Amino acid sequence: MEQCVNKILSHIPQVTNFRGLEYANIYSTNEHIPREHELLYVLDGKITLHWEDHLVYQAMPGDFLLVEAGTRHRDEFALLKGLRILIMQFHWECNEFFQFVNNRTLPNLSYDVSNEVRRRLDFLRSNCDDSPEYRQHLSIQLHSILLLFYFDLMKSQHTTEPHALLPLQEAMRRAKHFLDQNYAEPLSLKQTAKHIGISPAYLSRIFHKEFGVSFSDYLTSQRLQVARKLLQTTRLQIAEIANRCGFSSSSYFIKVFSDHYKVTPKNYAAEAAKNGKPTA
Q1: By 3-state DSSP, what share of the chain in percent is helix, strand and coil, each rounded to 5?
Q2: Cβ atoms of residues 46 and 118 within 8 Å
């Protein structure tokens, strides 16, 4: 462990590209393998990374993603919604770092460190130029950010209750992130509260206060939105859509969808097909 830390401390990454990107729709439908490491900071919209081992990582505004060089993956952007991200590409001979800091562990960053990294990236974005001197400055700043990630996650690993004193805003951000990422699973209030590290009763109370709807209503709304897009853009069977969106049965899905949109999923899909929307 000490040797790994010394290597991470002594090797400064070399930034090769730093820019803001704006997309209007899906960026890439094919898998690709980056030659460099990438740090992504989502400014607006939603991005989903589909990993080669079938893992899926989603990020909302304010979230970070790391893509290690040589990792086969596919980027998916939310349909009908713009996406703005800040991307920093870099070389760094510290593969051990990514074993500890990756897309599975980044959601566990503390509130203070997450805010500090956002502040630094926003500052760099506002003051960027193309000079060699600034490129070196970017490399030093990136090294500092990566070290913040590493030591904050190492600290939380040894803390018995890492989320016990989470500020309200951060607790809600994590709850929303968890639901948006796992809506297809049979989620419960208790399970989500455990993931965040707060009590179910407290989560229920502050969730309704923050978003104006109950936990279950928000989750159902997310599932219905995804189902509606699938009905618009695919020819999947109703049962398959219900399963993909986390509904316990196709009959329950039909009832909930019909109550919400005042039309059955079958008729909704037929109308979309009539208008030429389905693409797969």
Answers
A1: 50, 15, 30
A2: no
Round to whole Å and give the CA distance between 270 and 259. 18
The single-letter DSSP state of residue 13 is P
Report residue 132 as tokens. Answer: 């060699």
**CB burial readout 10-27, b (16+ within 10 A) else e:** eebbbbeebeeeebeeee
- Residue 58, SS3? strand
Mean pLDDT of 214-232: 92
Confidence (pTM): 0.59
Phi-psi region at 107: left, alpha or beta (left = phi > 0; alpha = psi -120 to 50): alpha
Helix, strand or coil, per DSSP, at residue 129: coil
Query: Using one digit for the tens of pLDDT, what is the confidence trace for 46-63?
Result: 788 888 656 777 787 888
Q: For residue 279, how many other CB atoms are within 10 A of its CB?
A: 8
What average pLDDT does this structure show over 222-235? 91
